[in-house]
C-alpha cells in the first residue's frame, strides 16, 4: 500500500511541476474564474465546445500542489466528453474526495483522477482538489460570477 501511495504522490507532484494544458485559450467559447479563499488558490478554466463536446480545455492559475495537480488531471480527463459527461465526472470525483464510503475501486474507474482519493483524509485540502471542478461547472453553466469553494 505504501508503494501505491508513493506512486500517487509522484503523479501529483509531476502534475504540479509540469501541469498539462496550462495555458490561456484565445477564442474560448466559455471561461470562468475560481477562488479558494482558505488556501488562496486561483484558477481560470477555458473551454472550446463544439456540438456539445469539449474539444479543448485548459487552465491558468496559481495555488498549492493539490489544486494545480487536480486542474491538470481534470483537463486531461475532459477532452472529447460532452458537457453532461463532464458534470457527471465532477460528481464522481467529488464523491471520491469527500465520501468516506467510497474506496479504491471507485478511484480506479476515474483513471488518473483516482490519485487524489487520499485527499479525503485531509478535509482542508478537499476544497483545493475541487476548485478547478467548481470553476468548470461555472464555465459550463455560463455563470458570470467567481466560482468559489465556499
UniProtKB/TrEMBL annotation:
Pfam family, one: NifU_N
Recorded superkingdom: Bacteria
Record-level Gene Ontology MF annotations: iron ion binding; iron-sulfur cluster binding
Phylogenetic placement of the source organism: Bacteria, Pseudomonadati, Pseudomonadota, Gammaproteobacteria, Chromatiales
NIF system FeS cluster assembly NifU N-terminal domain segment(s): 8-128
Name under which the protein is recorded: SUF system FeS assembly protein, NifU family
Stated family: Belongs to the NifU family.
BP GO terms, sorted: iron-sulfur cluster assembly
SUPFAM superfamilies named among the record's database cross-references: SufE/NifU
Amino acid at each position: 500500500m505504501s508503494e501505491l501511495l508513493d506512486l500517487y504522490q509522484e503523479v501529483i507532484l509531476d502534475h504540479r511541476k509540469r501541469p498539462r494544458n496550462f495555458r490561456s485559450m484565445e477564442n474560448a467559447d466559455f471561461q470562468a474564474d475560481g477562488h479558494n479563499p482558505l488556501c488562496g488558490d486561483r484558477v481560470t478554466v477555458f473551454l472550446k465546445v463544439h456540438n456539445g463536446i469539449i474539444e479543448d480545455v485548459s487552465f491558468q492559475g496559481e495555488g498549492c500542489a493539490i489544486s494545480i495537480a487536480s486542474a491538470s488531471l481534470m483537463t486531461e480527463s475532459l477532452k472529447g466528453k460532452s458537457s453532461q459527461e463532464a458534470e457527471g465526472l465532477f460528481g464522481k470525483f467529488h464523491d471520491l474526495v469527500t465520501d468516506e464510503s467510497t474506496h479504491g475501486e471507485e478511484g480506479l474507474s476515474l483513471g488518473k483522477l483516482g490519485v487524489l482519493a487520499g485527499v479525503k483524509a485531509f478535509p482542508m485540502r478537499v476544497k483545493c482538489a475541487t476548485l478547478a471542478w467548481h470553476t468548470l461547472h461555472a464555465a459550463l453553466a455560463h455563470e458570470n460570477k467567481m466560482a468559489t469553494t465556499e
